[in-house]
Amino acid sequence: MEIEQKYPYHSLRAEEALEKLQSRASGLTDEEAQLRLEEIGPNELTGTEGMNPLLLFLKQFKDFLILILFIAAGVAWYAGHMVDVYVIMGVIMFNAVLGFFQEYRAEKAIQALKSMIKQEATVRRGGKAKKIEARELVPGDVIILEEGDSIPADSRLLQAKNLQTVEASLTGESLPVTKKVTPLEEKVHMGDRTNMIWKGTHVARGTAQAVVAATGPHTELGKISSSLGEIKVTTTNFRKKTDRLGKQMAVISILTSLVVFVLGYFLRDYPFEEVLLVTVATLVSSIPEGLPAVISIVLAIGAKRMARQHAIIRKFSATEMLGSVSVIMTDKTGTLTKSILTVKRIFLGDGSEYAVTGTGYAVEGGLTQNEQEVNPSDSPVLRQLLLIAGACNNAKLGEQPGEGKEGAEKGEPSVMGDPTEVALLVLAKKITTKNEGLLPEVRQIDDLPFSSEQKFRGLLAEVEGQRVLMAVGAPEKILKLSTSILTAEGPQDLTDELRQEVWEKMDSWAEEAMRVLALAYRPSDGTSEEAVADDVRDLVWVGITGIVDPPRKGVPEAVAACRSAGIRVMMVTGDHKKTGAAIAREVGILDGLANDTSYGDALQEDELEVDDQEFSRMVDQVSVFTRVSPNTKLRIAETLQDKGHLIAMTGDGVNDAPALKRADVGIAMGIRGTDVAKDAAQIVLSDDNFATIVRAIQEGRIVFQNVRQTSYFLLTTNFAAVAVFIVAIAIGWPFPLTATQILWVNLVTDGVMELGLATERGHGDIMKQKPVPRDASILDREVVPYILLMSSIMLGLALGAFAYYLPQGEETARTAVFLVVAMTQVFNTFNMRSLERSVFSIGLFSNKYVNIAFVVSLSLQLVVIYTPLLSGLFRFEELPLVDLLVLLGLSSLVIWGAEVYKYFRFGRKQAREQK
Ligand code: ADP
Ligand code: MG
Question: Does the keyword Disulfide bond apply (predicted)?
């Protein structure tokens, strides 16, 4: 079998292309596809292979810090301290191993996330349409595409209806390109091959079927790029912040080490090599070398936690950005509501009204009037409405009960398609299954899919030998397009009084939070084969249906949580003003807002054609925007951003892509969303749920807090250790630690403990604070008193110990200082688990990783002091057990000091909050 992926398929007719690709209109069989997949390889771009652990390990040696360590080793060797040389080499190795594990862990987490983002494609295999992973596509597969799908492989069109694709990612052309099936001349340029569609581009509108011609690296995209659609770690706001932090800390450590050198060499005349060695060692230990790695671990852990909560991160930076979100712009259907729509009421053109019984998608229930069961065959208008509801519809009901869907009851069928259409289909089925032969046969000729700009859908069909055009959509829209109204006696003039009556009914339903849909039709002339939007006019109005879509569980709570977290929630929806406002009221979006309510609870699109100043006032005062077009969505977002807000926005359709990109955090719906929206977004919600956004924001805040806590920890630690040197030298004492001892302290404290801090879970009050301002830097002046307090305790203890033990010899004194410096830092980790709360109130041992780090760190210290070989190398002197315990006890003073500090600084505030 020989499949040519490079053949100019655009020059063949559709059938010839199929034949050439050894396929057929019904598609390949699974067996054929399997064989081809083995032969040709998966439909993936190359260059996406995983990490190489060896390279990752070697990378650790490229570090600037390692260079300084090698210099230190050189100096030691020059001074003849061979032991120091070995120890420094050991430290270099240890550092590399630690760095390796940190990065390995972060990398693993990123890869796990990548594997969650799967692209799917609908293909026809053995005559049946099914969804497969896009990587399993092979040349010859027949794929089915609709609006918003991304195109999974280079393909030759077989059928196209109103098809337009956007090829900007490939050709740079931003306008949609119209695609047709007709063959072209062989020599036309790639950008003009309008019967071909390309991997990496997407369907802007219309539907199509196509046969795959080239996959993976053989596609046009494969030739130019190897990295589309991956998680990108770009330089972001946050990266800038962490870079600045790194620089700030590096400057501090260089300056302080310089002081050590100057004091040691010029003020006291220690031998040059000694001073140099100690200076280099303090420099090494005070540079926060672990910080970048720790930050990526914090981000990775945050992203992993979010994924567990159904928020899948596509761009890593979003993890932290979420923490600063101050406005959420959410849509309604499916995000705030369950998206299990049920028709509850019917109001017909002849003035009759019905209630529909039954719940959810279950095909059980019927029609009642004044609590009495009605016989549908009595009313021709009702029959016409049911006919349109069932036929002008692209949804499908399966046999199997639906699985996994929140709120789906047992016995409900699985459903496919737009929930609005499912609701209408279920309505029709409820009646027709009980009354066979009620409705005539419908032969569908052409379907006009729903678009949120038009706000209606259509169908061209043949009913009893007669062509009709059916339409279902937003009632204002359909009412405008209607000229007559259906009654039991046939169509009549649609008078203004009748319009008024319909309008009032619609309004009152919308106020009850119902989504209202109008159904209408028009006899067609019988020549046209295509359903086009322009033909949807002069309609005969049949009636309206009222659909309920109850709020999801947990949404009101999530909205309330946003309020106390200082986050504003806005609803931006395509639905009717009153429906929007009613749902907003139910979930609590309208609570406690706007002091000035001159604009009312909600605004709709046509009220928004105002100048920027007024628009900006509206955005301040109104939180529900309805019948909104994608452009207005963008305008609202931009207005808010100009006010300094950081916004998270949800979206699902093709038209939402620009707004999703524009938002600081674009959030796409995993279930309902189109591929285009998902590609444009930074986060994909796998459960489409509003409450998930709020949980993700909480994780985002924890990320920022953990980065902050870890850097404060490093800063205190480094500052205190260097201070010990400076003061000791100034007094005229010997060095309080040797170079190798400093390096070891640095490893067993910073290196180990910061990993524990990275996993802190955040504490109760994190969603009671205001969002972190967008440009807040990680180092905050707030923390200065704390750092000074901790450093003085550490300094006092270390110098005290040194003075006390100095009469027993330098080595004993250094051993004591070593213990004190290390242990005060280790204890400080516990303090840093929360900047405001008492460590006892959050649970002293509640962070498993900090506990492990504590044990590891303590053992490492004891090992170097109490194993003869190592203590010889490090020049430690054994301390009696009592002394050891006393020193440990004294070191724990940092905890008591911090507790007192936290109590006076924040304790009262917390007590107030708890009331
Ligand atoms: P949203 O989903 O935010 O409510 P849409 O733009 O999807 O907004 O829908 C706008 C209006 O269009 C709805 O209020 C409804 O009247 C109508 N509509 C929505 N979906 C369909 C559909 N599948 N078929 C016909 N009309 C629809
Ligand atoms: Mg919708």
Answer: no
Return the amino acid letter for 80. Answer: G
- The secondary structure of 341-398 as a DSSP string is -EEEEEEETTS-EEEE---TT-S---EEETTEE--GGG-HHHHHHHHHHHHS---EEE
Q: Are 625 and 281 in contact (CB under 8 A)?
A: no
C-beta separation of 636 from 625 below 8 A: yes
Q: Domain tally for the chain?
A: 4
Instruction: Write down which residue in 214, 247, 279 finishes a domain.
Output: 214
Report if residue 56 sits inside a domain: no
323 and 369 belong to one structural domain = no
* C-alpha span between 703 and 264 (Å, rounded): 41
Nearest CA to ligand 1 atom 2: 333
**How many angstroms separate the CA atoms of 715 and 194, rounded?**
61
Based on the residue annotation, tell me whether 331 is a catalytic residue of this protein: yes
Region of residue 106 (phi > 0: left; psi between -120 and 50: alpha; otherwise: beta) = alpha
Residues with a CB atom less than 6 Å from ligand 1: 331-333, 418, 420-421, 450, 452, 455-457, 472-474, 515, 517, 573-576
pLDDT in tens, 859-899: 989 999 999 988 988 889 999 999 999 999 999 999 999 99
> Last residue of some domain: 669, 693, 717?
693
Contacts of 489 (CB under 8 A, 6+ apart): none
Ligand 1 probe mutation, 452, 457, 649, 656, most atoms within 8 A of CB: 452
Report d(CA 810, CA 817) in Å as an integer.
10
DSSP string, 441-455: -EEEEEEEEEETTTT
Query: Which of 128-142, 518-532, 822-836 shows the lowest mean pLDDT across its residues?
Result: 518-532
Catalytic residue among 331, 549, 652, 675: 331
Q: Are residues 389 and 510 in the same domain?
A: yes
- Considering the domain architecture, whether residues 619 and 632 belong to the same structural domain is answered as yes
602/621 same-domain check: yes
Are 333 and 383 found together in one domain? no
Element (H, E) at 542: strand 539-548
pTM confidence score: 0.81
Q: With the CA atoms of 505, 506, 512 and 517 taken in that order, what torsion angle do they form, in degrees rounded to the nearest 10?
A: 130
Chain segment 274-329, per-residue pLDDT in tens = 888 888 888 877 877 777 778 878 888 888 899 899 999 887 778 888 999 999 99
H helical segments located in 774-809: 784-805
**Atom in ligand 1 nearest the alpha carbon of residue 574:** 8
Distance 638 CA to ligand 1 centre (A): 25
Looking at the structure, tell me whether residues 346 and 420 fall in a common domain.
yes
Over the stretch 803-844, which tens digit does the pLDDT of each residue have? 999 999 999 999 999 999 999 999 999 999 998 889 998 889
Task: Say if residue 538 is in the same domain as residue 580.
Answer: no
Q: Which domain holds residue 605?
A: 319-337+553-693
185 assigned to some structural domain: yes
In this structure, what CATH number is given to the domain that contains residue 487? 3.40.1110.10
Query: Is residue 101 one of the residues assigned to a domain?
Result: no
